[in-house]
Amino acid sequence: MHEMSITRSMLEITAAQMEANGIHSLKKLKVRIGELTAVEPDVLRFCFDIAIKGTPFEGAALEIEEVPLGGKCRICATEFKITAFENRCPKCGSNEIERTSGHELDIISLEGD
Ligand SMILES: [Zn+2]
Q: Where are the alpha helices (H) located in 22-63, listed in sequence order?
């Protein structure tokens, strides 16, 4: 499962960050997931709950911020949200589009003691 391996690597990074910040018990983990990562937030939450059982992370909450696929026009610099049906600049109609967001898979913050 795609989401389970993502959860595992997220928890590895979390463990390293907790150690660096002197946090011993995790309360909340906040992550940012881009639309292009094909991660289902509900599935990720499910995997997270399974993965943290019996670990020092048990009981922690997962907060997910979803990032839509964003684009920027190379011609007129307009920034907009790309949809599956619209891959052109809404302002000048150019298809010289640079993808600016949607690949995110980041830990934004973690809370704990
Ligand atoms: Zn444009």
A: 41-52
